[in-house]
Amino acid sequence: MSKIIDTFIAPPCHDKIEYLYQDDHLALINKPSGLLSLSGKNPQNLDSVHHRLVQIFPGCTLVHRLDFGTSGLMVIARNKAINADLCQQFSQRTVTKVYSALLCGHLDDDDGVIDAAIAKDPALFPLMSICSTHGKPARSHYRVVERFYRKLEDGTLLPLTRVQLMPETGRTHQLRIHCQLLGHPILGCDLYGGLLLPGAEQTARLMLHASELHFVHPISQKLIKARHTSPF
Fold this sequence. Notes:
GO terms for molecular function: pseudouridylate synthase activity; tRNA pseudouridine(32) synthase activity. Helices cover about 10% and strands about 35% of the residues. It has three helices and twelve strands; from the N terminus they run E-E-H-E-E-H-E-E-E-E-E-E-H-E-E. Strands 1, 2, 3, 4, 5, 6, 9, 10, 11 and 12 form a ten-stranded mixed β-sheet that branches.
């Protein structure tokens, strides 16, 4: 098997993490776009959500991750027992995740489901690929919020669709590769065609935001319905 070599160096992220809620057991944050969830092996990729949070909440751990370019809601466990409980909720798929995204072009259907298995391919790293033979099952729902045109500085009209994305599974790059498969990549996505539409190359970030996260608080057993409005 080919050895995976990660040459990615994250540019400095000057945006701060927004703390939305915290108690003795967990914290809810809004991750800025352009910040790693976990520090990389390369010392230049030390800055991350976990690196910043462990200074404030010693012993905290990440229950789930968001891609480097994705912004939005993350729940952080403040001890091992809470981490185990929350990880179980994620693995049993009882956690509801809703993302806001801008897709290139105008979708024909108002809603739908993308069911396509996703596999790692060391030869293509860091890209994932759709593969029914070796891939892990992956399923995403989408719902159109609006179709519109964005006028660029040169007068070009960029056709975009604002959608809500609801992943049932949590595969790496799932929403990005599923939207590409749909024929409408996420605007600003450098890996899966989100910079190819004329005018899209000017996009400053990946237009994907984790806007809702519903889970059960491990101690109070109350249903937490966290929401954070998309910045785009």
